[in-house]
Specification:
The complex is a heterodimer of chains A (551) and B (911). Chain A has 24 helices and 1 strand. Chain A has helices at residues 2-19, 24-50, 56-64, 76-91, 103-129, 132-152, 157-174, 179-190, 194-207, 214-226, 256-272, 277-291, 302-311, 313-329, 337-344, 355-365, 373-387, 392-408, 423-432, 456-461, 467-473, 488-491, 495-503, 542-547; one strand at 548-549. Chain B starts with a helix and ends with a helix. The chains are: A mainly alpha (551), B mainly alpha (911). Chain A: One of its GO terms (biological process) is ribosome biogenesis.
């Protein structure tokens, strides 16, 4: 581990020399102090290696570690040398007691163990509290300790994982400003070594078993979601590449199933914990891609998903994809799925940022040609109602979507073209107008009578203020020659994009000379020359002048 | 064994009836009379030909490809046609042709000149010499008879006729040997229609003694008996006389012309319509004193002269552009009608654009495109050179203070600079002329339009007003305001310029800048003014943003300036507005500044907001809609800004009546937020957004509605009462906006769906206003509800099921393969036209090449053969000569030998 020492000490030097603009002499002095401690530490370390009589030096070193009341500024060189000391001791078997040992030997071992745990605690507190460089170093050191313990002290396998490692995880989760150290942990250990991942899952599952605060949950979720993606079923767990020597008794560690199981437990523990609304949404968002692959029994997610789906609003939208996954893959029978889906089409839907996501799913749900036409018609009608209050970016999705629906459900095309054959009825309509048979309040999409209605809304949108939107709305009144519109092309439009599309980014010359209003108005804001017109303001812009007082 | 060839021939001849019984003489005669003979002859020829073919099997060669089995794809025509070709015939034809062309060429090689005999029938071997002569004579006499028109004077002069020994060859004359005459006349008989050729022939033969041209004098005809010398003498004498006469006449003409020249200015004056001064009587020529002959001559040429002049004038007139009637001065009514027509056309254009149709006059568009292109160039140019030349320009235009007129009307300046139609013609000075040339026609057109508009709309008084006010202004204008300003390059410069100018004088400054940089004055000014227009747009936003109390009369004035500049610089102004919009959309799409609102208002006045697509108004729409759809609702001020934006929406849509979902959403949201009580939580059709702080109208005090002011956008009153008043006025404003919107969109098919939620919200407001503190707004809300109710009822009555697909049903796609009638495997059915054409050309080229090569080869062999033949001929000739000489010598020798023998014998005998 000398490399780490070097780098850290170098870093410190750099920090000192640049951070504190001190006089030359003082810098020299500090340098001297530093090198002094360094040589002292080295000396102490060498002494320990030399003979057992210098074991007391461990205590000295521990005291030099400077973590007694707060671990803000630990002496990393000391920590590193201590790590070396303990590793050597473990390798020499000095930390494992055997029954044959004499009493005083046992005393020494016990004392050493005590010091070791003291050292471990010191490291953990460094992880919890120190700055990020120290945190990372401490993490590396403690993981080294874990490795040494497992490999050199027999029978300590499970105790280390449930003891020291668990503490490390806890410390990591609770670490202050711990993003960096957690990231380090993920990249250096969890993603490298499958056994570490395995144990991490186990520890997180245990940790999340009890109720935790929201920010802790946040950290846990991020930790878990950042874990590697789930291994495929044909994946072989490579024991050789493990971080520490594997416990031969632990069969789970060697199978993919066992790993998945741990992950599943961890996720379930988190899902069962108290989640804030935002976290729930975040989880739902990563559900299909990150969480579900880990699950050996995805049906365990059912409760969470149905709960979320029933919640309504954006959460429901997000739960949809997970639920659909279950319905599709796991044969989940969700009664009233379409009714629920229909109820999701509310006024906020088209303004929500999950709109495109929802439409992608809706496209899949309604893709089946075996759906009843009444149901499809209800969706069409509801969507067209909503389009009346929708932003242009939503309208441009809805209309092609409808087109596709009309194309696959030709029965619904009566909504665009309905000739009344019945003479009496026609006369009736002529006299009293056509009453819209659609019932917007009906919750069941098969009973709304939408198929008897017409989509006047879209026809009205043909005179939308934005020319492109109006043009898109016009496709329903032209011949349906196109097979289908690729919905993906319409999904991700925004106001910003549309404005930019119109204005361009730079000063590009216009293709066409813009037409200018031919008449220069006599007045824009004021009552200029009003008497000439006989005091009656009727020119262009009189509407604004009538409502507003510009003075 | 078949019979012998001879027998077969005889048999077949007999069979076809060529050889038959001898006809009696009587029969023959009969046949000849009835024409049966000729028919028989034809028949017999055909039969003979057939027999010849049959008996000469090598004459006909079968086609190279042997006949194949009958297949369906082989086209019948080809298979039946393929009887074979006749190599002998083609060969002899080719040989013949070569002999006619190639051999000729070969023979005439290395030879220069030659005679071409073009006499009629000379090369026709079928004609007997008698026939030829008769035909030639007939043609000659025909040509003489057919004199095309009696007025063809040319003919007379050129006419020549066949003569013999100085005597004309006429039928009525003595007997003529037509043989000799025929030779001469036949030359042109070949091409007797062209007199030109005839003349040439005549010239060629001019030196022929026999051929005398009497063209000059027609009267030579009766005096045919005169000798040639006499005639010539006469001619010379006559021409001398004429020459003298002409000289005399010319002198007189000169005198007369001088006199006439003196009078010419008067004539012009008369033509121009100015009353000419009384013409001085031309000095009377005392003809009496002259000798009568000369007088007569003088008089005659005078007549001739006038004729000549008349001719000249006539020619001039024919070449002159046909004079057109000028536009007569129009009456008042006509002017009004024209104006109305123009407005109507513009309105129709606007309607078309509103429907999104292309303008019919595409050329105009193209032209304008071109304009913009040029303008861009100019811009660049001005940027390059302006820095140096800028100060100079302002200096040079200093002494024109009369331009800087101050008047209550800002556009008077334009009138002064842009000539109206009445004074455009005469008072154009040179610089203006140049300018006009430089700036091109489009400018003239545009400015004329602008000028016309200014005349019609804003300034009824024309130049007279300018003149009168100019004096006035010069006296009243305070000395502080400079008369000349540089044209600013950017907004900072403009701000520097107007730093010391009070707000009220700003329009004057702008006006002066525009006047000083009128495009007529310098070619660069167009670009400069374009830049200036952009700056003005920027300044409008600046004024509304930066100044605490922007004066709207000034902003209005500037906007109107911008509008009038937009007519000449549409690109610049549009780009400036687009730049503002871009800034809005990038920096603050959801929190519009007052300046942005003013700019958006400006857009609504400068550009037609009703257009289906417009490069400025469409983004402006989007900006407004985006603001309404997504803006944050923090406090009352947001609702004020929103109210202004909503009003603008309706203003934008006042003509086109297009639907804006964001408007409805925002307005209803605002009403729900401002209403004293919460809306009952039920299914709302629009997404409800709650304001971050409550802006509910507090039912504490009595509130009064007032007209909202623009400055409310900037500052919200801190006073609680005033704030409540503001909220109340806002509600009233929103209600009246909905009122207007219901009028606008009453014809929409989904009116019911759009306005049912509106109705419910308004009902809620009415409910809230039951409180007597809000009594002031009650009637207004009720009126609006009533209006919407009536619209709803009407729309229910008008509702019909949609009938969008009345167009012809789509044809079911057929899967029948495209079938080619008369398919020909040799033909290429290439769907790619170009490739097919290419292949066709290639094949043709190959074929032609092959043909040409074959021809060349045959030519070569022909030439070789001919040469060989010639050589052989030459050799034979030589041989013959040689033999003859040998024989001669031998015979001589023989004779000598004989003589010798004789001598010898004689001597021997003597001995």
């Amino acid at each position: 581990m000398p490399s780490i020492t070097n780098s850290s000490s170098k870093k410190r030097k750099v920090v000192k020399s640049t951070g504190a603009p001190s006089s030359k002499r003082r810098a020299v002095a500090e340098e001297d102090v530093f090198s002094e401690t360094l040589s002292k530490v080295q000396q102490l370390e060498e002494q320990i290696a030399e003979s057992r009589k210098y074991y007391n030096n461990i205590a000295t070193l521990l005291s030099m570690l400077n973590v007694d009341n707060s671990a803000k500024k630990p002496e990393l060189a000391v920590a590193v040398s201590l790590c070396r000391v303990f590793s050597r001791l473990m390798a020499a078997g000095n930390l494992s007691e055997s029954s044959r040992d004499a009493e005083n030997e046992k005393l020494v071992v016990a004392w050493l163990k005590e010091r070791c745990s003291e050292y471990q605690n010191a490291l953990l507190s460094i992880i919890r509290e120190a700055d990020s460089t120290s945190q990372v170093t401490a993490l590396t050191l403690s993981m080294r300790l874990v490795k040494e313990t497992v490999s050199h002290i027999e029978g300590a396998n499970s105790s280390v994982w449930s003891g020291l490692f668990r503490n490390i995880i806890e410390a990591l989760v609770e670490a202050r400003d711990g993003e960096e150290v957690r990231g380090e942990f993920l990249t250096k250990f969890v993603k490298e070594y499958e056994d570490i991942r395995f144990h991490t899952f186990a520890q997180i599952a245990e940790y999340a078993g009890t109720r935790r605060k929201a920010d802790i949950m946040e950290i846990l979720i991020s930790l878990l979601s950042a874990c590697d993606e789930a291994p495929g079923s044909d994946h072989q767990i490579d024991v050789e590449s493990f971080f520490a020597v594997a416990d031969p008794n632990n069969k789970r560690l060697r199978t993919v199933h066992g790993h998945k199981r741990r992950a599943q437990d961890a996720w379930l523990a988190i899902l069962r914990n108290n989640l804030s609304q935002a976290q729930r949404k975040a989880l739902l968002r990563i559900m299909v891609h990150t969480i579900e692959p880990w699950f050996t029994r995805p049906e365990l997610l059912m409760d969470f998903l149905t709960d979320s789906y029933n919640e309504g609003g954006a959460t429901s939208l997000l739960a949809l994809s997970g639920l659909f996954y279950l319905i599709q893959e796991k044969n989940l029978d969700y009664p009233q799925f379409y009714a629920k889906l229909y109820s999701l089409l509310d006024a906020d839907l088209l303004h929500s940022k999950h709109r495109s996501r929802f439409f992608r799913l809706l496209n899949t749900f309604l893709a089946s040609t075996h759906l009843p036409a009444t149901l499809v018609a209800s969706f069409i009608k509801r969507l067209s109602r909503l389009a009346l209050n929708a932003p242009p970016s939503a309208i441009v999705v809805i209309v092609p979507f409808m087109y596709n629906l009309f194309k696959s459900h030709p029965t619904c095309t009566f909504m665009m073209h309905r000739e009344i054959r019945d003479k009496d009825f026609a006369a009736d309509i002529e006299k009293e107008g056509y009453e819209d048979p659609f019932d917007p309040l009906e919750a069941d999409p098969t009973r709304t009578n939408a198929i008897e209605s017409s989509i006047w809304e879209i026809e009205s949108l043909q005179s939308h203020y934005h020319p492109n939107v109006a043009a898109i709305a016009k496709i329903i009144s032209e011949q349906f020659t196109k097979q289908a519109y690729n919905l993906e092309d319409f999904l991700d439009h925004t106001y910003q994009g549309m404005v930019q599309g119109e204005l361009g980014t730079g000063e590009k010359p216009l293709r066409k000379t813009p037409v200018v209003e031919y008449q220069i108005p006599k007045r824009i804001f004021t009552d200029r020359l009003l008497q000439e017109d006989g005091g009656l303001d009727s020119g262009a812009g009189c509407f604004m002048r009538g409502l507003w007082d510009f003075s | 064994m078949p019979p012998s060839q001879l027998k077969q021939l005889k048999a077949s001849l007999r069979e076809t009836g060529v050889l038959g019984r001898q006809q009696s003489k009587k029969q023959k005669r009969q046949n000849a009379k009835s024409g049966v003979g000729a028919q028989n002859r034809n028949q017999r020829n055909a039969a003979l030909q057939a027999i010849r073919d049959r008996f000469n099997p090598f004459e006909i060669r079968p086609t190279a490809t042997r006949s194949k089995f009958e297949t369906t794809t082989r086209d019948d025509a080809k298979s039946t046609k393929a009887t074979g070709r006749r190599p002998g015939v083609t060969k002899s034809l080719g040989e013949e042709r070569r002999r006619a062309t190639l051999l000729q060429e070969m023979n005439s090689r290395n030879k220069v000149g030659g005679l071409v005999d073009r006499r009629f029938g000379e090369n026709d071997p079928t004609m007997t010499p008698e026939e030829r002569a008769a035909e030639r004579f007939a043609r000659e006499s025909q040509r003489k008879m057919r004199k095309e028109s009696m007025f063809n004077l040319e003919e007379d002069e050129e006419e020549f006729q066949l003569t013999h020994m100085g005597q004309s060859l006429t039928l009525d004359g003595t007997a003529v040997d037509d043989f000799d005459g025929g030779d001469l006349g036949g030359a042109e008989s070949d091409d007797d229609e062209a007199p030109r050729k005839r003349k040439r022939v005549g010239e060629d033969d001019g030196d022929d003694e026999d051929f005398i041209d009497f063209g000059e004098d027609g009267e030579a005809q009766p005096e045919r008996k005169k000798s040639k010398a006499e005639v010539m003498k006469e001619v010379i004498a006559k021409s001398k006389f004429h020459k003298a006469e002409r000289q005399q006449a010319k002198e007189d003409d000169d005198d007369l012309r001088e006199e006439l020249d003196k009078e010419l200015p008067d004539l012009f004056a008369a033509l121009r319509g100015i009353k000419a001064p009384a013409k001085p009587e031309p000095p009377k020529q005392d003809l009496d004193t002259m000798n009568p002959e000369r007088a007569a001559m003088l008089r005659e040429p005078e007549g001739k002269d006038s004729e000549k002049e008349y001719d000249q004038r006539l020619k001039q007139l024919t070449f002159d552009k046909r004079s057109k009637p000028t536009d007569r001065t129009k009456t008042e009514e006509e002017k009004i009608e024209e104006e109305a027509q123009r407005l109507k056309k513009l309105e129709e254009d606007r309607q078309r654009r509103m429907r999104g149709e292309q303008l019919s006059d595409e050329e105009e568009e193209q032209e304008s495109d071109k304009d913009s292109f040029f303008q861009g160039e100019e811009d660049e140019e001005s940027e390059v050179d302006d820095a140096a030349a800028f100060g100079l320009h302002t200096q040079s235009y200093e002494p024109r203070p009369e331009l800087a007129v101050e008047d209550e009307d800002d556009f008077v300046i334009d009138d002064d600079l842009v000539e109206t139609r009445s004074n455009v013609s005469l008072s154009v000075d040179e610089s203006d002329m140049e300018e006009k040339e430089v700036s091109g026609e489009e400018d003239g057109e545009e400015s004329e339009e602008e000028d016309e508009l200014i005349n019609g709309m804003t300034l009824p008084t024309a130049g007279s007003a300018t003149a009168s006010t100019a004096v006035q202004v010069n006296q009243t204008a305070d000395g502080k305001l400079a008369f000349t300003y540089p044209c600013p390059e950017n907004h900072e410069e403009f701000l520097e310029i107007i730093e010391n100018v009070s707000g009220q004088d700003l329009p004057t400054v702008i006006q002066r800048i525009r006047a000083l940089h009128h495009p007529r004055l310098h070619p660069d000014n167009k670009a400069k003014l374009g830049r200036f227009a952009e700056i003005l747009v920027e300044h409008v936003a600046y004024m509304a943003n930066e100044l605490a109390e922007p004066s709207f009369s000034i902003i209005e004035n500037i906007l109107r300036h911008v509008h009038s500049l937009a007519k000449t610089h549409p690109i610049n102004v549009a780009m400036a507005f687009r730049a503002r919009l871009r800034e809005i959309s990038e920096d603050r799409p959801l929190s519009l500044l007052p300046g942005d609102l003013v700019v958006l208002t400006g857009v609504s006045t400068v550009f037609p907001t009703s257009d289906h697509f417009h490069s400025v108004t469409t983004p402006a729409h989007l900006c407004l809609a985006r603001f309404l759809g997504q803006c944050s609702l923090n406090g009352v001020s947001d609702f004020v800004t929103g109210a202004f934006a909503s009003s603008l929406c309706l203003q934008y849509q006042s003509v086109a009546k297009r639907y804006m979902p964001e408007f409805i959403n925002f307005t209803l949201n605002a009403l729900c937020n401002l209403a004293p009580l919460d809306m009952p939580a039920k299914h709302l059709a629009f997404p409800l957004r709650k304001a971050h702080q409550s802006v509910k109208l507090a039912p504490i005090k009595k509130v009064m509605s007032r007209k909202l002011q623009f400055r409310d956008v900037k500052t919200v009153p801190s006073d609680a009462q005033a704030q409540e008043d503001l909220k109340f006025s806002l509600i009233t404003l929103y209600v009246s906006l909905l009122d207007t919107a219901s009028d606008l969109w009453a014809d929409m098919s989904a009116f019911i769906e759009i306005f049912t939620p509106v109705h419910s919200v308004l009902t809620h407001i009415r409910q809230c206003f039951k409180n007597k503190l809000f009594a002031a707004g009650r009637d207004h809300v009720q009126a609006t509800i009533d209006k919407i109710d009536s619209h709803l009822a009407q729309s229910r009555l008008a509702r019909r099921p949609l009938l969008l697909h009345n167009h012809r049903p789509l044809a079911i796609k057929s899967a029948i393969p495209k079938f080619e009638e008369n398919f020909n495997p040799d033909k290429h059915y290439d769907p790619d036209r170009e490739r097919a054409e290419n292949n066709r050309l290639k094949a043709e080229y190959k074929r032609e090449k092959k043909g040409a090569m074959r021809e060349l080869r045959k030519d070569a062999s022909f030439i070789a053969r001919e040469k060989l033949r010639e050589k052989k001929e030459r050799d034979a000739e030589y041989e013959k000569k040689y033999k003859r000489l040998i024989a001669e010598i031998q015979s001589e020798e023989g004779r000598a030998a004989n003589e010798y023998e004789r001598e010898k014998r004689g001597r021997a005998g003597k001995r």
